[in-house]
């Protein structure tokens, strides 16, 4: 009998990109034997994602889906006996807490509050519940807010007397996210932040990692920015503590630090609180140091002053002697173990991107991805070593698609300092053939285009269409030491542009299959700013440009945006205090030199880089007679998230590249 011929793999497609299953939210059971996690699948017809819960044993056996009801299930938490899972679900019509026993049966609804549960935490004994809900600050009860929110005003006027009046993609409506406490079995509900004009979790991206119970369940530590009228230009997030019963007002723990304090986690014995802290006020990309605080005396130690990396996810070992953290590290996001007594740091994993981690006995469970694979669960030993796979949620996709091969390279950039980049070869690469280039410029600007599977700006989408993708981690990128990150501030169009120029030259020399006559540059956010800057200051190499949500006028951008601490740090003050800095590298002052065809993309709900910046860019292009196109998504923010919009985005961007390079 003849063996069946292997199925020929096909290039990765935009539809693959949009419909990949997305794994997140891993939680290890208290007994260390199981992991629960969320998997999001995409319903293209409904134009949205749907999340369900799955569980697997830490030894890799017993994978099964736990939920399949309509709506989303997310944010799982284990019961103390490891036999049940709590989670948030919208199946009742609002976002409430549910419970599911692992040995069978239907999930039961635990809460039925008049407002959505935004996030929650359980005490270690499983008796106490703290949850977040959006309330009017002058309302003491959930019912008060629900009643007021249901009232229909006769006027559409929105009236503000302070900032923020809108944030990220949402107009403010007079409500704050506050923490409430109650017994899990029911009973009185206490507002732990009564009258506090601050959000917990923080907005716009805070979650359940912004608050935690003490070991005895009698108090709660949470993160909030209570900055009064300075909120829009303050990064002073603080840790606060409050009794679970609300018998006393919240007390600020981090009184001496005017910069960010975040991510509180108590040690297993409850005697030590670990958290992350920055040092410089108003700088959102400052190094996050690991701090440990004695729960009784309040005495603190910084464990990582001498470690030139910024900590991310944070977890204790079972014996309380080690802390495990993630950190950007030379184009990767690795895992590190910190000895709590000495502060000694050991690298456990340095390849790929770890987005989440949890402790399971004497090993770690991590969510790991790379330029060649989306996120899956793996185990990792306390001393490092090889990853052991637990899940392969997109195995069916990887079995039928071809991907481009990635490779990291380095070169001498600004000031002859080493700069790193990645190249991803086109699918079906053949030696001796020339390929067009997609030159991808990351945002932030304090970010990284590293060994990470991106669901929006993924170089594999370009490799699948026959492009070489090149990404440069220019000065200002994260993972190369804090001085490297700091170097971009006040010099947005200087060092980074030189790095991009030298990086392109280095890639062309190292990879002669790049066709120098068919090159396009693309970027979003800061990358979009850089595209506008390139258009007037380095337009020679490019057949086309793509600008997604990028600033044209740095002066006006200050007055348009919402988080004012960012431009005030990057430009050394306000436009009226330091006008020269806003003019130093301002793309609008170089429009006269524009000549390269440009695709402009913008989201109507982007309040970080407002849509008029994109409209102004397109207007200038059209008035100058430069071939250009404007793609506008009125229902998207700084990112294009809706599945059908993502498909259109990729079709328009790839079509634009094809138009000018093929």
From TrEMBL:
Coiled-coil annotated spans: none
One of the GO biological process terms: proteolysis
Domain of life of the source: Bacteria
Single annotated GO MF: serine-type endopeptidase activity
Domain Peptidase S9 prolyl oligopeptidase catalytic span(s) in chain numbering: 453-661
Keywords attached to this entry: Hydrolase, Protease, Serine protease, Signal
UniProt record similarity statement: Belongs to the peptidase S9C family.
Protein name: Peptidase S9
Species: Archangium gephyra
